[in-house]
Amino acid sequence: MASLLENRFHLKEAGTDVRTEVLAGITTFMTMAYIIFVNPGILQNAGMPFGALMTATCLASALATFLMAFMANYPIALAPGMGLNAFFAFGVVLGMGISWQVALAAIFIEGILFILLTLTKVRETIVNGFPKSLKIGISTGIGLFIAFIGLQSAGVIVKNDAVLVGLGNLKSVEVLLAFAGFFIMVTLEVRRVKGSILWGILAVTGLAIALGVAKMPDGVVSMPPSVMPIFGKMDFSGIANPNFWIVMFSFFFVDFFDTVGTLVGVTNRAGMLDSEGRLPNARQALMADAIGTTAGAILGTSTVTSYVESASGVEQGGRTGLTAFVTAVLFLLALFFSPVVAIVPACATAPALVLVGIFMMASLKDLDFSDWTNFVPACVALFVMPFAYSIAHGIEFGIISFAVLKILGGKAKEVSPIMLALTVLFIAKEIFF
Question: 292: which residues sit within 8 A by CB, 6+ positions away?
Fold first, then answer.
């Protein structure tokens, strides 16, 4: 078995082993397993059945992650994207009055378009066309974004109408458990214990059960609900409606740059970029994402995209597709063991996200602070991602500031044609849409 895995995933070449990859895959799954219940909870507002959505979420996540494992050999997992699912339910179905069946058709067309663009190397060219400084800014920006999500999930940071955000109740049991989890994980990391994040999640889950914050399920095994109520229910009758294409391109834009940002950020942190800062197997990774989106629409869920939580597995040593393979297997098992998956509380996974954010901030050491035409755009991308709560917008403003500052600074030759084209596209988008 070990030799089979070695031949398929090239573990020695990547400086890893089976045990490390398995722990990394479990860690990635634990930090993103919330999507199994959160995605159906959001999409049911569009009139879709919760049970069928849960099954579709697991199947779409597993399929897309398997594709990433075998096509690109990357330790990156995929699932229906947060934000995109909310836009689907509240913006498109409830806000615009478009049926969920028509919305799924828009996502299906988006996926087909992604497949065509990937075959023509357009997406790959864009990914590899990013300058090194922006790749660093994107990587650290994702780190700050992940940490912000973790602090929110833990209840440490909460909504404050006066100043947007503020401190939560630091005396609550959930917050104290999150603090405990954070220090357990950091201590294990300092002592170089493999799987520190995973052990921390398990420890806090145990404490949460003991304190009554989390409850043991009534059962362990449950048969998954049928996916048939939403499977293959795409409705293309709205294709002549201009709103259909507005919806499709909205999904397209956010998914495109969320995926680009995640791939660049996570692989940069994993040290997987080549000597020229390009992403090997970029086309295969993007194709896995594109097929995942298309298959997700057929299964009946919103846009499938690469997950920033994959960084948690990378920080535990995951370097190959075996990490993604393990995560995909766990998504399939979750179909039958959903009561067990539901045990893990947010206060157990939140500190893991904060720690991953800290790890990813380390990329700043490679940024050239002396050249402000590189330094400032990286900072713009870094700041906008968490503050606008959007990886896509962070990339957008980072690219615009890069091109504008290079031109104004007399370094226009350093702006590649692809960066210039994207700048024009983004400015036009903000003006006209």
Answer: 60, 63, 64, 65, 67, 68, 78, 111, 304, 305
